[in-house]
Specification:
mainly alpha; 15 helices; single chain
Length: about 625
């Protein structure tokens, strides 16, 4: 960890700490904001679901009303026909409104479950309108349709998250008005439909009365549960308590009155002479009270969810402002602290950098009691020791420059490691001086031609000095050997010997190349002179020296060629003279032919002379 932290500058570490603080704060704030936003998302989904659920509750209400009117019509009350037809149109419109809302929410079950309900209703409405169904069957079909709507209300309550509302007041409102109230309304609606049918025909079987008693029990149970949930909601929110108190009391009174009418006029009555229209009005009023309460509570629920959304938005704003303020405060404190610390550390770094540059004259402000001031005071002491050490080194350098190479630093005036450094410098300088003196001795020996001296075997990188001197010696020995070889060969007349140029570099190579050129010129010049002389010995006067020669070799070339030219002229004259003598001899021989008869001795003498001349002429021609 220390090694890792040591790779970063102080400002980077401070920036990292600040960044880490920002990150922690940002993560915590981000998690909180994410939680708030998730709550807002749930609230938005709830808010979007209240209206469709309310539409389905309204559709349930109209289906229940159409069930009651259909019971009247199908049991002989033709006067209710126009009301039923009007109610049928209302049901159709209500179902269409729910279908439109379902299209706007394709991700919930309502979008695919509602079309079959609409189809079921259209088939039922057609049957009732065409009188193709009797009263009991109509009641059963209507009840089945209402059950489907109730199922969709329950599913939509879950899909829109209404049943999981986090607030106590909203949760109990949803439980009361979207779970229990529709069940209560359906139970009361069935009681209304069955009672209307029985009062319309003024007769009820024991089984039908038993069914009514069961429905009454279910209705009382659902009404009790609904009241408990409403009370919990009111207790959790005083505003709801004031809002729901009146409608709750009115619906409870109407419910109690309606249940008493059913009990007295149908279940316990034997004549069933209570007017069906009055019964329908009593039960419808009770149901209207429930639905009015439902409408009121749904409005309150919408308001509560919207208020929660507004509160969440305001909270996000406050969190954002608080986070910004926290960041600014943290940034400000971090800036002030880090700036002060960086300034003091910067002073320390400036001193260290000055020392690293060799500037020991930097002034150090060591005031203060913090750790950085202690560090600066320590650096001040270090600078004093370094100045003293520098002065001693400067004195030593001056003395050595003046030729006093035996001068050394006073080790005793420096404590601890500085004294050891001074001692090491003295030993180092003495060692270098000894090596230098030895190199001078060896080079002097080489300068006077004594190559028998060897350089001492120095250790470490000083071995490079030994290697360099050995190289000089080897080169001198090699070039000396080349010169001896060529000189010996030249003395022996072997001018075809050459030195190894490729074995040398620079000036040594040029020396060997020059000797080779000398041997080459000598070899060529002397060879050509020998060739000319050999040709002259054979009587061949056509051979001459060729090529470019300088100095004595040039003079030798010119003299040899001039000799050949002179011999050629001499031989030519002799040849011409011998030919003239030969012609004269023949003329004398012809003129004295007559004398041959006179004297043989003279003729023989002349013949011998002619023969001798002919021999001389032959020799000259050759």
């Amino acid at each position: 960890m220390k090694e890792l932290l040591g790779r970063f500058a102080l400002w980077q570490k401070l920036a990292f700490l600040c960044g880490l603080s920002f990150l922690v704060a940002a993560v915590m704030c981000g998690l909180y904001v994410a939680m708030v936003r998730e709550g807002m998302r749930s609230d938005r989904i709830e808010s979007a679901g209240i209206a469709p659920v309310g539409e389905m509750v309204q559709a349930l209400r109209l289906v229940q009303q159409h069930r009651a009117l259909s019971a009247q019509v199908l049991n002989g009350n033709s006067a209710a026909g126009s009301s039923r037809e009007a109610k049928q149109a209302e049901v159709t419109a209500a179902l269409a409104a729910v279908a439109k809302s379902a299209v706007a929410h394709p991700d919930i079950r309502l979008s695919k479950d509602w079309p079959p309900i609409v189809q079921h209703w259209e088939a039922l409405a057609h049957k009732v309108g065409a009188a193709a169904i009797d009263g009991p069957a109509s009641f059963a079909e209507h009840s089945a349709l209402a059950a489907e709507v109730l199922g969709e209300i329950d599913a939509a309550t879950d899909d829109f998250g209404l049943s999981l509302d986090p607030a106590a007041d909203s949760y109990h409102l949803v439980s009361a008005m979207l779970l229990h109230m529709p069940q209560l309304a359906e139970a009361v609606g069935q009681v209304r439909g069955l009672g209307v049918a029985e009062l319309s025909r003024h007769a009820a079987t024991a089984e039908e009365k038993k069914q009514l008693e069961i429905l009454l029990a279910l209705a009382r149970r659902d009404q009790g549960v609904m009241n408990v949930e409403l009370k919990k909601a009111a207790d959790a929110n005083p505003v709801l308590q004031n809002l729901l108190k009146g409608p709750m009391l009115e619906s409870q009174a109407a419910f109690a009155k309606a249940m008493q009418v059913v009990q007295d006029r149908i279940v316990e009555s034997s004549s069933l002479d209570y007017p069906a229209d009055d019964y329908l009005r009593d039960l419808t009023g009770t149901l209207d009270g429930f639905y009015t309460l439902n409408h009121t509570t749904l409005d309150a629920l919408q308001g509560a969810v919207d208020a929660r959304l507004a509160a969440s938005r305001a909270l996000l704003v406050r969190v954002g402002l608080g986070s910004a303020l926290f960041v600014l405060l943290l940034a400000g404190l971090s800036y002030v602290i880090s700036r002060n610390l960086m300034q003091r550390v910067g002073e320390s770094v400036a001193v260290v950098e000055a020392v690293s540059r060799g500037d020991f004259g930097t002034a150090v402000a060591a005031g203060g009691k913090d750790e950085v001031s202690m560090l600066l005071r320590a650096m001040q002491g270090m600078l004093g020791t370094l100045r003293k050490f520098q002065a001693a080194q400067t004195e030593m350098a001056g003395q050595h420059h003046a030729g006093c190479i035996d001068h050394a630093m006073d080790v005793k005036q420096f404590p601890g490691g500085y004294g050891q450094m001074a001692e090491n410098i003295n030993r180092l300088v003495a060692g270098h001086i000894a090596v230098t003196n030895r190199v001078v001795e060896v080079v002097k020996s080489y300068a006077i031609g004594d190559l028998s001296v060897d350089m001492d075997r120095l250790p470490g990188k000083n071995a490079q000095i030994t290697e360099a001197i050995d190289g000089v010696k080897a080169s001198l020995q090699a070039i000396s050997g080349e010169i001896k070889t060529l000189a010996t060969a030249a003395a022996a007349g072997r001018f075809d010997v050459r030195g190894e140029e490729n074995g040398y570099k620079n000036q040594y190579r040029e020396m060997v190349a020059g000797l080779n050129r000398l041997m080459d010129v000598s070899h060529r010049g002397l060879t050509q002179v020998g060739g000319v002389l050999a040709a002259l010995a054979k009587g061949d006067l056509s051979q001459k020296m060729s090529g470019d020669y300088e100095g004595l070799f040039g003079q030798l070339k010119n003299s040899a060629n001039a000799t050949v030219d002179g011999l050629q002229e001499l031989v030519g004259g002799i040849r011409q003279t011998s030919e003239s003598i030969n012609v004269a001899a023949r003329e004398i021989s012809a003129g004295n032919g007559d004398l041959s008869a006179r004297t043989e001795q003279q003729a023989a003498s002349l013949q011998e002379t002619a023969s001798s001349m002919e021999e001389l002429t032959g020799t000259v021609k050759q």
